[in-house]
Amino acid sequence: MKLRTLMPAVLAAFSTTAFAANVELYGIVDAYVQVYNGGNGTVVDLGSGGKAGSRWGIKGTENLGGGNSVFFRLENGFMLDNGTNSPATGGDGYAFQRETVLGVKGGWGALSFGRQYTLNFGGIAQFDAFGCSLGSTINNFMAPAPYIPSNHVSGINGLSGIDNMTRRDNSIIYESPKFGGLVMSAMVSLGEQKKLNRVTQELSSEQSNKLGNTYAVQAVYRSGALGVGLTYTYQNLAGFAPNNFRTINAHESLYNLGASYDFGVTKLYGNLIYRQGSKAVDRNANPNLMVYSVSAKTPLMGGYLLNGFAFLKNNTTDDSNAWNISARYDYPLSKRSTIYGGAAYMHNDDNVNYTINGGGGSSSAPDTKIGKSPWTVFVGLSHAF
Q1: What is the pTM of this model?
Q2: Staple 284 to which of 109, 115, 150, 183, CB 3.0 to 4.6 Å?
């Protein structure tokens, strides 16, 4: 009898607390089937996270008064095809590998802490018609591609291929309020690593305040149909994570200029990215890259037609350029469900094997042979809750 009386009270109390704190459970489930050929034969593959990475999360806010509020977001990625955690977003070592964010915001801006998307990734994705999902030509150059002598040629995100410059742990981000359409942001991600011995390059027992650190600044201006963004990122690569470069002066710099313009009949997007590697490590493993991309989003028959083209120029390593082209059509079945389908083609030079990737936290693409040019045709379904 007591249990019957107690349970409604507990549920009512929980509901009241959740409502007061404005807590929300949300997520996306996304799966696609593709026919893929990467030079190893044609295969049929079931993937997770094409239009958007499959995920579930909890987010909430609390009003502090005076225009200020606290917010949080805990988000986990998973593979719909096999039920495991998303390897592309950290794998099994994280409880919430996509995001763990706590922050405070008000009329003065927003300050957040935790594992967060980098300004570099955000600066690229918002000026890509695909938002760095399946079919995004610039997204295919995020991850590294093997190079015959050193086994690595960097992508835009660096060398590890595991969230190196998409998300960063131990990060602090400040975002300003709007000033006539201009928003400015700054980020620091703390490496929290031990110092390196300058002679042996081995880790010492002392803590370092700079090894593995990442710093970034960004300015985005929007007015009517026009959007322009500029992002600069500096990353110290020394130490264990994220690249395992035991070289004190190893670093990289990323410069990204993005723009978009809505013509009404279509919206055009563009990115120009320059990645400057340091000479402190193997230059084939840490090269200078230039990436150009253009994409479009066009309303068509109740849905959207997305098209993209991107070219990667490796200024350090011979025969390591690549380009790719794609098209995808998204058709909403409802406010929460979308069916999509498309095709993509990647041309690789002799020493690289860039692949065609899905959205963040997607299944890994089938293997692509070095020097081969993969293609894919796909169809998928995405549902948000």
Answers
A1: 0.86
A2: 150
